[in-house]
Structure formats: structure tokens, C-alpha cells
Design brief:
single chain; seven-stranded mixed beta sheet; 7 strands
Length: 193
């Protein structure tokens, strides 16, 4: 059985994705950047060594490609209802090594994913820490207890700390990256070589 990469992605619809970024640079520019980030992540994180599935929202857009931004070759499943805790619990019912990433960190690539899967051979969990206190990657062998994702302060400076405290067993971290959530973060990412 191949390891599984799940990419959480929101439909690239103007005004519906990257709203905090849009507040700083405008809706059209944020929409273009988000589409480019998604395309880059899908291109740079897929690999024949693992299966890749898009975990999409809203559910009624599951068959859309958005002009090729969502590649037709990648299977999709709807995120469904509920908060992030419920959606992560749904994904981690999968048996075997599973890594979850999002579309906010365009610097991530297949080398990061490969390192994550390698780390899962000797660790209970692997995180890709984000500069905002969260994480851009989380990997574990599933299935995991459904309550593992409860009582986490999502989108908070202590998100990674909260999540890591709930893991039983050795944890490792990959490189620290920046989520592009607002104009300041976009500038930081664009300034790095």
C-alpha cells in the first residue's frame, strides 16, 4: 500500500479564498496568487511514490477543474461539514502513512513530502512548522483516535504546540515555512530566494 498525501484545498473562487490576503492586496490579485499557489503545490508535491488526493471545499465543486488549477488526474473527495477538527478526524480514519498539507505554503515540495514519509517510519508524527505557530504539514500512521483533534486552538500562535502535546510517541519536525495568509506573509515569501 502506497503512502497517501491529502491536500486540503478551497475552490479558487474570487472573494471566497484568501480573504485576509485580499484585504491587503485586493480581491483580483489575491485570487490570481491563490490560483498560482495551488497550481505550484499540486505540481511540486505530487509524485508516483505516494498517492495524492485533493480534499476539496465546497463539496459541490468536486468535479470542477477551475481552468486546470485542479488537475483532472488527481482524485477528489469532499471535505463535508464541520470544523477543521472534524475534517481531520475524517481523513485520519485511513489506514497507513498519511500526510496532510494545505495550499497556503507555496514553498513546500515533493522533497518535503518524501522526508515526511521517511520520518513516519521511526516517528509517531511529523510536522512542518509554520512561522505563525501553526503547521503546514502533519503526518501520522492512521487510523488515529477521533478525539485527537479536539481542543486544539486552530489559527492560533499555539496551534502546533497544542497538536504536538496530544501525540503519544516520538515527534519530528521538518523545515519551518511561512503560510501566505496576508500581505505581510506574501512579502516575506517573495523576498526569500
Amino acid at each position: 500500500m502506497k503512502p497517501l498525501l491529502i491536500i486540503f484545498t478551497k475552490a479558487p473562487i474570487m472573494g471566497k479564498a484568501k480573504t485576509r490576503l485580499a484585504a491587503g492586496i485586493g480581491r483580483v490579485h489575491a485570487w490570481r496568487i491563490y490560483r498560482a499557489m495551488c497550481a505550484k503545490i499540486f505540481r511540486n508535491c505530487t509524485d508516483p511514490r505516494w498517492d495524492t488526493v485533493l480534499f476539496v471545499t465546497p463539496d459541490d465543486k468536486i468535479y470542477s477543474t477551475f481552468g486546470g488549477v485542479w488537475p483532472e488526474r488527481l482524485p477528489r473527495i469532499p471535505q463535508g461539514s464541520g470544523g477543521l477538527s472534524a475534517r481531520l478526524a475524517k481523513i485520519y480514519t485511513h489506514k497507513g502513512p498519511l500526510i496532510v498539507i494545505g495550499t497556503d505554503t507555496p514553498q513546500q515540495n515533493r522533497n518535503d513530502i518524501a522526508q515526511g514519509f521517511k520520518a513516519l517510519k521511526t516517528h509517531a508524527c511529523v510536522f512542518g512548522p509554520a512561522t505563525d505557530g501553526g503547521f503546514w504539514l502533519m503526518g501520522m500512521d492512521g487510523p488515529v483516535p477521533k478525539n485527537l483533534f479536539e481542543d486544539i486552538r486552530w489559527s492560533h500562535p499555539e496551534t502546533l504546540k497544542d497538536m504536538q502535546a496530544k501525540i503519544i510517541g516520538p515527534v519530528t519536525r521538518l523545515r519551518r515555512l511561512t503560510d501566505v495568509d496576508d500581505a505581510k506573509a506574501l512579502r516575506q515569501v517573495m523576498e526569500k530566494p
